[in-house]
């Protein structure tokens, strides 16, 4: 019996490495030959080092031009015909659309992982958005496919769009390596909070800066670390000049790209995320594994990891005053931080470990390969 081939379609190589590597490793251990179709920038060697087969394609992330879409669909379809995979895993909205169109008529079982619903539902009305909202439920209704979501809110959105409940599978995130990210003691010195992620408007970075300014005006601002870079392909990207200006303000340090994320949490007492919507934020999962108390929005995706009164303080989206109050409270209460930190680590180990997520994903892969028309929704009841 030949080894089944599994193809990941991801628009960017860095996203595969940062968000899909645990799944792909679990699939390889389970006996799949793993192929990766992506735009290759700096992470090609890392993908090859895992023993995966890499197929570079110039995918235009963020582009809504029809000619770019058609070129991508044609390139991916040619690869599907050549690779002849047993299963495809389409990652994020653009990957789902390109991969589904490319697989038309090929009877290819597929996992359609919808990790970018926020970009659609937070964006303004446009012809491209209307077309996507018309097309997406039709692609997700195809036989031999499963729609993979990371939180209950995104599952509810798909149901509202008319996607059959039997095709929706909920698996919480991509998993976090709890052996690599170990609990860290709180650092000495002044209380420090950190945001890790892309520098986007939708991530609430401006709300975070406004909250810090409010605290600074009151004379109680903790140190703030910003770890991440702008994303020019995303319309919500914050200009580098604006980030540089923020770094000139007292108490704010912009670190740019950080390869060793644990080094950020080693410097910080509190993890903060002011996002408007997430799938399941990897930055909070990694902070949880490192044993960090959290402050986050009561928003889809965020609330699954940052649980109010359990391991976090939460606040309404875009509410800088409420965020400032939460920062002030948690920065001034070391005992509460310690309690939250211990619960964060427990949640990472019990609910969000890469090992657990890997088992759920491989189970889904195997079911789709064995009975493409039937999905028993492993993980559908997960939080």
Automatic annotation (TrEMBL):
It comes from the Bacteria. This is Glycosyl transferase family 1. The lineage of its organism: Bacteria, Pseudomonadati, Pseudomonadota, Alphaproteobacteria, Hyphomicrobiales. Residues 6-131 form the Glycosyltransferase subfamily 4-like N-terminal domain. Keywords: Transferase. The keyword Protein biosynthesis does not apply. It comes from Blastochloris tepida. The keyword Transferase applies. One of its GO terms (molecular function) is glycosyltransferase activity.
